[in-house]
What does this fold into?
Amino acid sequence: MPILFEFHSLEENIELCQKLNLDFIELNLDIPYCFPENIDIKLLSKNNFTIHLSEKVDIGELNNSLREFYLNEIEKIISFGTKFNIYKYNLHLDPGIHFSLPDKKVFIYQEYLKEYLNAYKRSCDLLSKIADKYNAIILFENVRIESYTLKAIEVISNYNNLFFTLDLGHNIRYGNVAKEQFLKYENKIRHIHLHDFNGLKDHQELFTGLLNIKEELDFCEKNNLDVLIEVKRKEELINSVNNLHKFEYLN
It folds into this structure.
């Protein structure tokens, strides 16, 4: 389960996780009580976690100083987390910012594609070393896929210790492009984010939208993938888990 925004302590999340008999919680580093300086390390030692890095982290950032700051923060988080047996670290394949012109949107990374890909490769060089140093699994999650994001996926695929999180809700929302691309490197998919898409919004309760839950969970089981049920509210998480039991997708 993910950290739920309606809760205001890690203890509340742990209590629900145990009640639902789930295996792990994804800490969210945009939530203050998940920051390393705020967290109760006794809770880390007694429970299982993964970490979702801040959504502000963008390793394709063209500003060298800012990109280096992000990378330093990633290493600091991984250095902290692996002391408590947290080994999976998720970050977004960020599409970056765009300028809205009168007749179109212009994406910075498309306009400066060479610089973007050079920045991405330099970042992946360092992240690969960090992954080796801490025996960590660094995962890149699909959000909105653009043409330059596809090229970034190719860059990531060249590193044997950098991997992908396949977000199935994002995938169906944005036209199934990410899954098609990730399946070219199927052995590099190491983690799943599961939520439904109702035609308008993603991160919806399971079995309320367009996602083929059985097909996707069969894929996860076949590939022995950890699955995060990435809905946003307690009620939706409980309903999702209950329905997974009801349809015998969970024991």
